[in-house]
Amino acid sequence: MVAQKSCRWKCVLIVGLLSVVKTYGFYVNITYLDSAVEKGAVCLDGSPPAYHWDVGFGVGINNWLIHIEGGGWCNNVTTCLTRSRTRLGSSTLMAEQVAFSGILSKQPEYNPDFYNWNRIKVRYCDGASFTGDVEEVNSTTKLHFRGARIFRAVIDDLLAKGMSNASNAILSGCSAGGLTSILHCDNFKALLSTTTTVKCLADAGYFINSRDIFGTRRLEAFYDDVVNTHGSAKSLPRSCTSKMNNSLCLFPENMIQELETPIFLINAAYDSWQIKNALAPGIVDPHGTWHNCKADIERCSSYQIEIMQEFRMEFLRALDAFFGTSSPRGMFINSCYAHCQTEMQETWLMNDSPLLSNTIYPKPIFGSRKHARNHMVC
After folding, report:
1. Residue 14, Cβ density class (10 Å: 0-12 exposed, 13-18 middle, ≥19 buried)
2. Phi/psi class of residue 57: alpha, beta or left (left: φ > 0; alpha: ψ in -120 to 50)?
3. Cβ proximity of 69 and 121 under 8 Å
4. Is 175 a known active-site residue?
């Protein structure tokens, strides 16, 4: 049962965040993949894809962590055109440097498993979790739907720069990037050497086909538009699309059981993005009844808490599809009101990070094969 008291780190002031970055994070320069343009692997506006790479060292020099940026999706020409004029649709508008912290940190005390690996943050600029592949470019909008090509071009580039000799490789991501790490998990493994140990890690990428407070499956309809706009069907698992509507295969619960590559899930059962945008989006709350609750769960009514409890139970039921497979997998599902927990140092191996049986997250990821999803505290 969720307490009305929110997680301690949920509402951190901007000043505090800047202080954390200065204390725990560091900045990494951008790399533009200009060679991808001739392959048609481009952002929505036709600009080249990009990533940030902090080179590995010491015993981690042959290990690679590829982390995919999140940022939602665009579902039609109008929303994608708007997106193409932001950093989520054009590399010309991306920051030249981004802060690396949490799972991307280079400090062993804050990231003991990966601090000396090659850590790459892939920028997200296609709007469909790297699944789109439409050859035609609209002569009016000049929009390019080429996410699948971007993914392949970036991985090919990193393979040429040393990842082909990797001892270990992990594909991870946050939010829409976490969904990418699920959808492309087996594809990622297929591109690497058979001698490389490959695993996937999805942070806040387990989006479920839930109903809103009035019973409508809004995310399903939204995903249907995404798939049709971006031509995503060809990038989705055939084992899923052969059995159901293509858009349903963007929901991990419908395709994750088919994955052959080891995968680990990190998610909040009270996923704040899904509660804000799928359970109680503004379109079904014209009078703002849910506004204060979504901003701060301490201000939720008992009725709203009950609705959120029902969402949590629906989320946990959707995780049943995660099991029943022979491939190694695990999960860390806590009861925080949060979305994305691996990129922030506050929730990655800090003294007040979420706990599992008095074990600080993320230690359960590599210390146990158990599937834990209850009794988490923030």
Report:
1. exposed
2. beta
3. yes
4. yes
